[in-house]
Amino acid sequence: MESDRSSREATVATGTLVVDIIRVRVAFGPASLGPPASELPLTTAPRPTIDSVDVAGRTVLVRVDFNVPLAAGKITDDSRIVAAVPTIRSILDRDGACVLMSHLGRPAGTGYEANFSLQPVGARLAELLGRPVVVPGEGSVDDAAAAAVAAIGPGEVVLLENLRFHAGEKKADADFAAALAAYGQVYCQDAFGAAHRGDASMVAVPDAMSDSPRVAGRLLEAELKYLADAIESPARPFVAVLGGAKISDKLGTIRHLAGRVDTLVVGGAMAFTLLRAMGHVVGRSLVEEAMIEEAGEIIKAVEATSTRLLLPTDFVCAAAPEAGVATTTCGRDIEGDLMGLDIGPESVASFAAAVRGAKTVVWNGPMGLFEIPPFDTGTLAVAQAMIEATEGGGITVVGGGDTAAAVNDLGLAVGFSHVSTGGGASLRMLEGGPMPGVEALGTV
After folding, report:
1. Is residue 16 part of a domain?
2. Could you say which of 160, 189, 219 is where a domain stops?
3. What is this structure's pTM?
4. Which of 100-109, 401-410, 414-423 has the highest mean pLDDT?
């Protein structure tokens, strides 16, 4: 898929992406609920990386994920910006120029909207890099953007305005993609958080640059390595921890992991739909009524595999999800108007023991309403157990989204082997689903 030129350039420096996503070949036998390994949409295949390409004197078009949370125009979590810095520095330190492109939020796609501008991101990135970052104009393909890119030189950085100001981004429009592709001589994909999407910047732009090097950035390389390695060749015991609100969001993941992991731990509000399917009364706890029958089928199917399904046995309950509210500990049956808002002490102990004894742990989804103490106890306990597993030589991967936000908020991110920047993307990988943004890259 890659040109002869980029294949030759792959020998310039070490560093090829050993694990990437088209088909993860996992042979787990008939007990697995997922499709046979030969039919999985993920595979291991070498991909070129940014460190394997000579960028001196060239402009590198880098798709980053700067979709960061903002409050009153201020960035409240800059972890995605920080995560992109190693790739950017790799280019700048080798006398390349960077044209960065990203989306932010969900603007209407009809033009500039100040609330979704990347100007605050550019300012923060400039602080991190210690050099200017130009954010030109009010669009990514307007005259101001084109002029800024034309004037760029080695060691300089241009951050294009929000890609989603243009309707062509979400529509994967070929003309929009061609205009972006004209900005660079090398395409670098470093937006793992959007790699499960088929947007113009993820797929149509690299397709338009098929005669140029198309490579993975350092962040994407790390994301794919940790997540794919965990699925493909985990050290055992292998434990997956799933949480969050909706079982419907995780059914594909459960199916894919059943028979592949040794223990599947399920917490968070999604556990209540499973418990209802088992015949328990759960009070006013969140339940997806339409999913109860399917949840029952999933339980039976998982139990038919070699995977141990570990569900909560108790909960921290309250009358309302509010700070300062009176709490009580309930068993699996929750009476009256109470609702379960976190896993209880018995569940904390059993979950932590399973995680602490693992050699590979993948975690996606909080155990409770972690934003409101004291309902953060279960999430904190799982995080602490994973840190202990890491200290014991295990591989621990936090699967982005709310889970990454939780460990960042708790100040624990440094204790894991890897904290993913992509919620939906990491979940897609755990499901064994396609990753268009990765598949669009060249091969070595």
Report:
1. yes
2. 219
3. 0.79
4. 100-109
